[in-house]
Amino acid sequence: MVNLKNIMTPKMYDVIEAAGICTVKEIINLSTWDIQKLTNMKEEDIGILKNLVAKYFCPEIVTAEKLEKERHIKTGCAGFDDILNGGFRVGTLSEIYGESGAGKTQLVLQIAAQCGKDGSIYICTEDAFPVKRFNQLLEHHIHQTSYSEHREKIFIEHITESQDLLSCVRVRLPKLLEQKKVSVIIVDSIAAPFRVDVTNYVHRAEELRELGILLINIAQKYGLAVIVINQVTSSFDEFDNVLPSLGLAWSNIVTYRCMLKRKGLEVNTNNFNNVNVRELIVVFGPDLQNKNCKFIIDSSGIKTI
């Protein structure tokens, strides 16, 4: 990382150091008027100072073309992988949200089964891990001779409190990842620990921000994908009757967001008779188009129609 002392004149550095505002965060966050009051610098010089800091400390700009070439985690459904440009991208935080019964847990279970020997971590914050359904999906997605090997490569944790979840991500996850190879971390769901008896919304926003940054840092450091399930809340928007929970504090951290929606019973749909049809909708992603596809869920998992 570039040292502030190396990117500005000695005189400018001495002035801001004497004023006690020689960190990047302070220089960017303080207004021109605040810096002027503390340093007596001219407005033009403060503009130069802020531009210098912004230039040398801004994050790397990545184009969508580069994102398409990066590694992805397959979903086990060719239709989903197609509209997701190959699956959920490694090094990012992806969110799947939708109403109860839309197929969210089915999708992430299938992803965990699909990962197989590449390893997965599954953090449950609501119900117990559905072992029976996971084993059923393994039978359809993994060769029978490697069942036991793949079962040993999924690490399951049950957490109900937000502080316990943060502690797990801060300490225990990095320790595990130093010893075991894992391709995906799944949290089902991210909202549950933060929706219990919430009174201090500022504190909750700070915890969510810390959790999101920790998960993204882990995804990038260890070369894996993080996928979280989110619950929904009612919306007064005439176009959307539900919205993902946790508000803007969380939404601004998520890299990819997909919605699962129940479409209801459909008859004679592409050779599937009288089936409950659901829909995957890409809400946003830096390299994704706003596409959608219909799917059903059967004993073998998710199938597009």
- Biggest beta-sheet profile: 9 strands, mixed
Number of helices: 12
Helix content: 40-55%
Number of DSSP strands?
13
Instruction: Describe the global form.
Output: elongated
From the N-terminal CA to the C-terminal CA, the straight-line distance is 50 Å
Q: What class would the helix/strand composition place it in? A: alpha/beta
- Main sheet strand line-up: 5-4-6-7-3-10-11-12-13
Oligomerization? single chain
Strand content: 15-25%
Give me the Rg, rounded: 23 Å
Q: pLDDT below 50 for ≥5 consecutive residues: which ranges? A: none
How would you state the average pLDDT, rounded? 87
Order of helices and strands: HHHHHEHEEHEHHEHEHEEEHEEEE
Features:
single chain; alpha/beta; two-stranded antiparallel ribbon
Could you give the topology of this structure?
Layout (H helix, E strand, L loop, with lengths): L9 H10 L4 H6 L2 H8 L3 H15 L6 H5 L3 E2 L4 H6 L4 E2 L3 E6 L5 H12 L4 E5 L6 H11 L5 H5 L2 E5 L3 H18 L4 E5 L12 H22 L2 E6 L1 E3 L7 E3 L2 H5 L4 E11 L8 E10 L7 E7 L2 E4 L1
Parallel strand pairs: 3-7, 3-10, 4-5, 4-6, 6-7
Antiparallel strand pairs: 1-2, 8-9, 10-11, 11-12, 12-13
Helix pairs in contact: 7-8, 10-11
Notes on the structure:
The chain is α/β, with parallel strands linked by helices and 305 residues long. Helix content is 40%, strand content 23%. The strands form 3 sheets. It has a 9-stranded mixed beta sheet. The radius of gyration is 23 Å and the shape is elongated. The mean pLDDT is 87.
